[in-house]
Amino acid sequence: MKLTQLEYFCVAARYHNITKAAKELFVTQPSISNAIKALEEEFGVNLFFRNNNKLTLTPEGELFYKSAEGLLAHADSVEMEFHELRKKITPIRIGIPPMLGTIYLPELYLSLKENFPEVDFRLFEFGSIKACDLVLEEKLDIAIVNAEQPAIDKCNSRIIDTEDLYFCVAPDHPLAEQKTILLTMLANEPLILFNTDSVQVMTLTRQFKAVGVTPRVILNTSQITTLINMVKSGHVGTFLYRSIVEAHPDIVGIPVMPSIEQRIGVIWKKGKYQNTTAEKVIKYIENF
């Protein structure tokens, strides 16, 4: 027994005629006849007396009609209830660091809205370490982060990209003509870096320490615009992801040797239930 069969039966019962029922439902007459026949065979009863083109409910048909109407009304109620529930779906909260936001936004957000129009996405800008902590505290559902951090093991994660760090300067900087840069060459160079709690800066600190250099950092900032504008002034250098360098032709990006590769990952809390939509969003971001 299918809801469609019940609907066809009830409309035929109201019109007492298969032709009129088919016209009302925008289906063929055989579709109505076959639905009624299938119900009669399934339950082993005759639902209608047939007199030429007129249909009249049998006693069994009258009982079945009342039950069928109740089932259809209940199905409509359930459908409406879940449509309302869909409108109240909890938003998906996504964290992303400022530098990665420069790479992935607004394209990622626009693509998510196009592919998941019913989902209310809320984006929050946090550094990778803070975003990871907020995922563990369930204040974020998903985050896109620099995966080169110890806390990454506390989360479920999937690597979605890799980015090399380039040393960046203005075109008129004395080092702008270099084909590659060794960290030892930067011992006396004024640098501007992101805040000290960023994964990128922690990585650079380890790399400088490994070659015996104490970097000359004149400013730590959380604002990528400030960082890039300072570099354009021609007096300082910084480190940026390759993708950011490619988007700013007015600065020079020089590969670092040996290369400093950073893995980018999407993370979510281990053991936390993720509904089907959230799982699809995670998979979509992974393949973005």
Describe this structure in words.
With 288 residues, the protein is an alpha/beta fold. It has two domains: 3-86, Winged helix-like DNA-binding domain superfamily/Winged helix DNA-binding domain (Arc Repressor Mutant, subunit A, Orthogonal Bundle), CATH 1.10.10; 93-265, D-Maltodextrin-Binding Protein, domain 2, CATH 3.40.190. The chain has eleven helices and eleven strands. A hairpin with a 2-residue loop joins strand 1 and strand 2. Helix 1 crosses helix 2 (18-25), helix 1 (3-15) packs across helix 4 (59-87) and helix 2 packs across helix 3 (29-43). The chain is rod-shaped and about 100 Å long. The two termini are 43 Å apart. The relative contact order is 0.13. The model has no long low-confidence stretch (mean pLDDT 93).
Biggest beta sheet summary: 7 strands, mixed
Mean of pLDDT: 93
**Strands, total number:** 11
- CATH fold node name of the largest domain: D-Maltodextrin-Binding Protein, domain 2
For the record, the count of structural domains works out to 2
Please identify, by name, the CATH architecture of the largest domain: 3-Layer(aba) Sandwich
Q: N- to C-terminal separation? A: 43 Å
Based on CA inertia axes, which overall geometry fits?
rod-shaped
Pfam family, one: HTH_1
Domain HTH lysR-type: 1-58
Keywords: DNA-binding, Transcription, Transcription regulation
InterPro entries: HTH-type_LysR_regulators, LysR_HTH_N, LysR_subst-bd, WH-like_DNA-bd_sf, WH_DNA-bd_sf
